């Protein structure tokens, strides 16, 4: 029986057509099948940890992701077309235009950023196209990271089945299309966006190994994988990167994923390192998030629901307090905290604002004494965040184990 059903009726059918279109666009940006997110929209419409090792992190030190070396803070490029012509939006109510996006990337590289992250699912294709254009003439200055793994037609961007697809032939087609969009001859880190439960990871890793042999890919990574899938993949083609959500708002990787990375020598890239703007001070106790004209993902995220957000503000208040103590902004403090957890962790905050991008890079200059880090970790651990980190239909794709090899 197929694990990628396409229901005749989905949870977003109750939405007016414009809002339904925004939901589908948001699904594409997140790399999520529209039918998965639609189940979350119904609830949105109706509703309208342990501590890490203690160390002093050297300010500004370069970071290793497997055999690669990068600046401590990267740039996440996760954009989609907005509702208005020519507008490019992210998942959190921010927008600009394509020329501004290109300038942002080039400014980041000028200021020292060496890790640029994107994916075919972001748009689909739009983010890769922007990154490819922006990196013309400066491609060799960066580590370029992109992702595959959803059932998206490599030519048209149409979603074929609404699910995941990591079949070897599909991966080969996707990579060839990515190379054209990115205007490059190689992808530095190719990441499986989400584990395909129907395809043995040995087949995926073997295909990436072939692409590495052909010179099209340099390194391999996985995003939000199951622990045994990591071990199985690493045995076929050593992994340079695991990319999971990690921040003071979500410390889930600390229990098992970070120790596994340390054991196997795998670098760790943090998506949503600022908790979808929460840790940067962009969310208030009474904040509400739009479903239209461009849907804000936080509108369907349980930890941003009106009934739990006031309680969760205790963490935002803590970050503000420590930011003042360290003479930093809340965003810088939050990113510096991540950098202090392990020397092979690299956050990839996204933004549409060049000033915020520059601000984020300042986190690399902030360090903690062992005692400061002990105090901050203890204070963060004492705050219980209410609400799940992701809508159920999205969360179900994290921690997945690939099909066994037969």
TrEMBL record:
<dbReference type="InterPro" id="IPR006311">
    <property type="entry name" value="TAT_signal"/>
</dbReference>
<dbReference type="InterPro" id="IPR050791">
    <property type="entry name" value="Aldo-Keto_reductase"/>
</dbReference>
<dbReference type="Pfam" id="PF00248">
    <property type="entry name" value="Aldo_ket_red"/>
</dbReference>
<feature type="domain" description="NADP-dependent oxidoreductase">
    <location>
        <begin position="94"/>
        <end position="379"/>
    </location>
</feature>
<keyword id="KW-0560">Oxidoreductase</keyword>
<dbReference type="InterPro" id="IPR036812">
    <property type="entry name" value="NAD(P)_OxRdtase_dom_sf"/>
</dbReference>
<dbReference type="InterPro" id="IPR023210">
    <property type="entry name" value="NADP_OxRdtase_dom"/>
</dbReference>
<protein>
    <submittedName>
        <fullName>Aldo/keto reductase</fullName>
    </submittedName>
</protein>
